[in-house]
Design brief:
The chain is an alpha+beta fold. Helices cover 36% and strands 21% of the residues. It contains 3 helices and 4 strands. The protein has a 4-stranded antiparallel beta sheet.
Length: 95
């Protein structure tokens, strides 16, 4: 059996991401982002849906820090309220 060493990125080379909590479906969030910043902006934002059981009835999304303002603007223009934004999933729980 051959062991494969998994390569890890240095912290300085990783993407700086922010997690946000919304009350909407993934399809609505993706459509709002695509409508406001387009396909190229969607790719630059690197939006991802995060699967977690900690927030029932809510969607946790993730995007790059540089594009967070554009993503928030896109969501607000479509009537989707961003409940919380945090740098970690643990920080989304709040107090």
């Amino acid at each position: 059996m051959v062991r494969v060493k998994k390569l890890k990125l240095r912290p300085s080379a990783r993407d700086k991401r922010r997690y946000f909590l919304v009350r909407a479906s993934n399809a609505k969030v993706e459509a709002a982002i695509l409508e406001y910043i387009g396909v190229l902006g969607f790719a630059k934002a690197a939006y991802m849906k995060v699967v977690t059981k900690n927030f029932p009835g809510m969607l946790v999304g993730s995007c790059l820090v540089k594009s967070l303002d554009d993503v928030r603007a896109a969501l607000v223009l479509n009537g989707i309220k961003v409940e919380r934004v945090s740098g970690t999933l643990k920080g989304l729980k709040g107090k």
